Every structure is written in structure tokens, then in C-alpha cells.
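Could someone model magnesium ion with this protein?
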Amino acid sequence: MARIDLDLAHAYVPNPQRDEDYALLPLRFTFEDGGAYALLGPSGCGKTTLLNCVSGLLRPSQGTIHFDGKDVTAASPQARNIAQVFQFPVIYDTMTVGENLAFPLRNRGVPDAQVRERVGRVAEMLDLSSSLDRRASGLAADAKQKISLGRGLVRQDVSAILFDEPLTVIDPHLKWQLRRKLKEIHHEFRLTLIYVTHDQTEALTFADQVVVMSRGKAVQVGSADALFEKPAHTFVGHFIGSPGMNFLSAAWRDGAIEVQGDKSGRRYSPPLEGHVAAALQAAGTFRIGVRPEYLSLSNEADPLAMPVHVTRAQDIGTYWLVTATVEAGNDAVLRARLGTEAASLNAGDAAWLTVFNRHTCYYVNEELVQ
Ligand SMILES: Nc1ncnc2c1ncn2[C@@H]1O[C@H](COP(=O)(O)OP(=O)(O)OP(=O)(O)O)[C@@H](O)[C@H]1O
Ligand SMILES: [Mg+2]
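Reply:
Sure, complex below.
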């Protein structure tokens, strides 16, 4: 396994000039040896481009890649000793399941006894033990993809294993199992794993560190907890969470916060750290970010509560999802995940929501003030 240092950029077009010309904007990043990473972001943000630069399928148009301090920028995937699992299964139909799993090892002249041991172990982990002698051609797509995963995992000598949306063809229940399996495998083998997905649940359950990408940029790298509690950028707040973070436009007025569209005329004075207050005052206008989980139902007596119009109250089973707009027809929408206290709410009701608490985040130019 290897520590992977990136200091690169990539443009598919020659002579890139503007940011839009880059599939990957200049990026410096280290994948630590033995870490489990996810690259998470919407379609087209550059996940596959980044992964292919790591594997060596693509040479970045600028910069370098080092594996354990060695410059591998010009090295092929073989020379980098990378295993890559793609979105669709890549297996040999004419071989049995066992032969498919053994192939990457046989190819490298690993002794038979060791091949058997390793194939047995990986097959067991992926619940493929009973089909080792079956021909791969007759298997369903998800079983084939399990073999592809197994072929990635079977080698112990690789620098890293890269997965590019490997569970797309797998049905939801099995997906959940395989994700857990990959995590177990990571704990057992301590492999450097990099996993590309646009599914936040997949990224957050699989990886210790999630790299959130947007338009060619890594906007935040962090644990699931950090991405949830302190999104560094409004994009991360939106993208992570279900539903995502709520945002309200606000201004600093006479030492307090005024929320745009809030016709109650209230000024809010939540406890703020000195440097946060100073940054908001300096900026003048900013955005308030609060997760649906951290909004609570309150009343007028609460000086940190804001009056809202309920537009919808849905019973989701384990919680109530209440959608509301800030008083007086402002189009800022708040979504709140509430308990049974929300059961009596109906569309058209007036209510008070506490927006300010210790979880509330503040953004100037889309960046978290911290
Ligand atoms: N071979 C290529 N030639 C030119 N442009 C490309 C090529 N591959 C990707 N791009 C462009 O580079 C950008 C990043 O693409 P990339 O495939 O890395 O995104 P992605 O995050 O993997 O998306 P998806 O989730 O759809 O797989 C996109 O704008 C895409 O259109
Ligand atoms: Mg992709």
C-alpha cells in the first residue's frame, strides 16, 4: 500500500485558459497509506478524471503524482501497481468464478497454494464460495460485479484499489451488504481504498475521509461528521444531508442579525464567537446555514425564533418533515425534521422556528466563517 501525493490539474482541451477549461482545477492532496476515501460529487465534477490520474489511465496535463515519495506521473497503471474496479463488470465469461478471482494472482506468478488461500478468503467475504466452480457467463449482473470486486481485492501487493461507482448495477439491498463488506475488508487488510460515487450514503458509510467535489474542485475533505456539522462551503451543505442544509440571506445591522424577508422586524443576537461576529460585521451581508435536524419548533417568546408559514407537514415515519417559508412571502424555504410535536401542524399555519443555536453556520461568499 502506498501514500499518494497529488499536485496536479487536468484539462482535456489544449491550452486551458479559463477555469471552465479544466476538468480538474489545480489540486494538492494526499491519500494517506491505508486510508478509506470516497470522492463524492455530482455528475461531471471530475471524479473519474481524478481517479484515472491516480491509476495512470490518464496523465494529468499539469503537475505530478508521487507514490511513497516516488514520482509516478509518467508510469502506467501496471507499473503503479493499482487495482481498479469499474462501474460495469470486467470479467472473463469463459472462466469459472474461481479462475476469474485467481487471474490477477496467476498473472503475477503467485504460487498455487497462496492463490488458493487468497481466493478462498475473498470468495468467502463476498459470499461467492459456493459458486467458485461455476462458469461466470451464466451469472446475473450483480454476481458478476462481485467477481470484479473480488478481482480487485484478491491482490495483497497493490498500492491502492480504486473503485469507480462499482455498485451501480447492484440491487439496493445487496448494495448495502457489499458496502459493509468493503468496510470490513478495509479494516482487515488495511488497503488504501479510493471509492468514487455520487451517492452520499455510499460515501459516508464507506469512507473515513470524504472528498466532496464540485466543478473540478475538491471543496472539502472531511469525516462524515465534519461534513454534516461544519460544511466548509454552501455547496457541501446543500449536497450532504437529506434534505440538505437550509440557507437564509442575512445582514449585520447595529450589532445584530437581520434575516432577509423576515417582516417581524426582529433582530437576532445569537451567542457568536468574537471572530465570527467580526467577520459577519465586516462582510455586511452573509448567509445563515442550518440543517433540517437542527431547526426546532418554538414560540414568540423565544428571541432566537423566527416566524414562518408552514406550507407542508409530512409524516415520514421516523420524523415529520415540515416545509415552511419565511414570513411574508419570502421565497426562502426552510425544511425542518421535527418530532411528533409537528403532528398538529398543517399547511397555512403560522409557526415559530428556532434558527439560531450552536449548530448554526455562517457563510460569507459561500465559505464557512470559522
Ligand atoms: N475524455 C474526455 N474528453 C473531454 N472531456 C472529458 C472527457 N472525460 C470527461 N470529460 C469532461 O470532464 C469533466 C469531468 O468529467 P468526469 O468524467 O471526470 O466527471 P465525473 O465526476 O466522473 O462524472 P460522472 O458522475 O458522470 O461519472 C466533465 O465536464 C466531462 O464532460
Ligand atoms: Mg465518472
